[in-house]
Amino acid sequence: MTALTSNSAGQSVPAGHRLSEADYQTNFSDIHTPLDARSAVVEADRCYYCYGAPCQTACPTDIDVPSFIRMISEKNEVGAAGKILSENIMGGTCARACPVETLCEDACVRNTEDDRPIQIGLLQRFATDRASELGAKFFTRKAATGYSVAVVGAGPAGLSCAHRLATLGHDVVIYEAQEKSGGLNEYGLAAYKMAGDYAQKEVENILSIGGISIKHGTKVGKDVSFAELQTNHDAVFMGVGLGTSKDIQLDGEDASGVLNAVDYIHQLRQAKDLGQLPVGQDVVVIGGGMTAIDIAIQIKRLGAANVTMAYRRGKEHMNASIEEQEFALNEGVHIAHWAKPVSLQIEQGTITGVEFKKANVEGNETYITPTDMLFKAIGQSLTPINMGTTEFVKTSGKYDVDNELRTSQLGIWAGGDCVSGSDDLAVSAVQDGKLAALSIHKTLTQSQA
Prior knowledge:
Layout: E1 4-6, E2 12-14, H1 21-27, H2 37-44, H3 54-58, H4 65-73, H5 77-85, H6 91-97, H7 104-107, H8 120-133, E3 148-152, H9 156-167, E4 171-175, H10 184-187, H11 198-207, E5 212-215, H12 226-232, E6 235-238, E7 244-245, E8 258-260, H13 261-270, E9 282-286, H14 290-301, E10 306-310, H15 322-330, E11 334-336, E12 339-347, E13 350-358, E14 366-370, E15 373-376, E16 380-381, E17 394-395, E18 398-399, E19 412-414, H16 426-448
Parallel strand pairs: 3-4, 3-6, 4-5, 6-19, 8-15, 9-10, 9-15, 10-11
Antiparallel strand pairs: 1-2, 7-16, 12-13, 13-14, 17-18
Helix pairs in contact: 2-4, 4-5, 4-8, 5-8, 6-8, 9-16, 13-14
């Protein structure tokens, strides 16, 4: 019988399986080996520097990929970083966590059966890391405009929007409910993707432009009203992400050992001692996206004996890329496809198993997978915010916006995961923030003229 401890909600959950400190450091160290200067130049020289490059088209932030790679080949790493950051101020994070295998690298003309794509992600990381080491500065503020913009949420969308607005001379106040900035980058990405407190270093770089202040621990609709934002600022940008984990709609979800993957990853990312985290022996993860992959691998690296990732459809339908699925399999995670959960097995208030139906066969054939820890990772929804009399048009529970990220309310923009049609990628959120900032700037300055 696995020993139990209490989680933050007061539930009893499996106690942590203590590994050595050295094991934890190894298991949660940087997953990718960075390129050194020589290997970066060699890799850059493989690029064809295509005209109308498909890799650039595939980049949600429109980075001029061939140009920055050519700069690396010419040993101009700082120039390459400037080219990257001018379009994507969070280029360092995206180089670490962006699914390049389905975006720029997938589109690379060298991505054939007889060749391999240029390692664009690693080259981007090499350039941005090198520029950071050298203390390179790329941005200065324009003359103050006298306008103030409220940004709700200090995640990728909010930080990107704030930085671009600051460079254009506007003052920005970010209202952030958490105690740290970074959003998904700080609290939601797998620890082995964002090692070494990188998210906070990137935040510091963004804030160095000046003109941006952040009010942490401030929930809009509770600590400050939405009406106050509209009164005290000339425009508002909503970059709130998706804060509420979806339930699997089965009896027993409140049982001990049933946890939200996002909440657990949040705790893991902030833990000072990984050995104190609860870890089951037989763990089941329900979901088929990146969060499901991230929690499955991390709980395995924390010491879980058996980890099963259950997805209701086939391999080709999973939101997680084939590369990420293979990574999970190599880590010892078992992926069960066509597994639809139909009931939770609860004994004395504690999860002991999950009953699954084989979704790809006719009839009602079911089977039970024993578990002492179950993670829900089937997506998130928008956390309701008390906006008083302000109302936005919403589709599928998210804010509707036009092609300039404007909501249905005059003077209010939104971007990132919280808007309809978003792909839930940090790199896309960065682009939304940038485009919204340009639209806000145009609106404010046109009114001034």
